[in-house]
């Protein structure tokens, strides 16, 4: 159960970076994260072979809300920080979610990725 809680935290970090803040027109923040992409946790941990339709829908929603390069940098940094902090998450699976869902994301959850590039 603790493993699932940590995974849920990662997914929440990835998911809601954009949602709450963009709706209010403010800069994005990792502190405003929620559970919009919790449906991605089975794929992120390798429990299933493909992201669910709900996961893809949430990822597409987050991507649509990240309108500026600063929004995308914040999203990238939040994803990197949470991915490295949560055990049991397969970084290759997290990195593959956008592509498998048809979302053109140019950053990676790899802790060594430069989000400023």
UniProtKB/TrEMBL annotation:
Gene3D superfamilies: Plant lipid-transfer and hydrophobic proteins. InterPro entries: Bifun_inhib/LTP/seed_sf, Bifunc_inhib/LTP/seed_store, Plant_nsLTP. Coiled coil: none annotated. Keywords: Lipid-binding, Transport. GO terms for molecular function: lipid binding. Transmembrane segments: none annotated. The keyword Repressor does not apply. CDD domains: nsLTP1. GO terms for biological process: lipid transport. Belongs to the plant LTP family. Plant non-specific lipid-transfer proteins transfer phospholipids as well as galactolipids across membranes. May play a role in wax or cutin deposition in the cell walls of expanding epidermal cells and certain secretory tissues. This is Non-specific lipid-transfer protein. It comes from Daucus carota subsp. sativus.
């Amino acid at each position: 159960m603790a493993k699932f809680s940590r995974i849920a935290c990662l997914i929440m970090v990835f998911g809601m970076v954009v949602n709450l803040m963009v709706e209010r027109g403010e800069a994005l923040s990792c502190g405003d994260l929620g559970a919009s992409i919790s449906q991605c946790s089975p794929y992120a941990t390798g429990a299933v072979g493909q992201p669910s339709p709900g996961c893809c829908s949430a990822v597409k929603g987050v991507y649509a809300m990240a309108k500026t390069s600063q929004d995308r940098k914040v999203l990238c940094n939040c994803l990197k920080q949470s991915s490295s902090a949560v055990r049991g998450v397969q970084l290759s699976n997290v990195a593959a979610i956008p592509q498998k869902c048809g979302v053109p994301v140019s950053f990676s959850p790899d802790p060594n990725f430069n989000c400023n590039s």
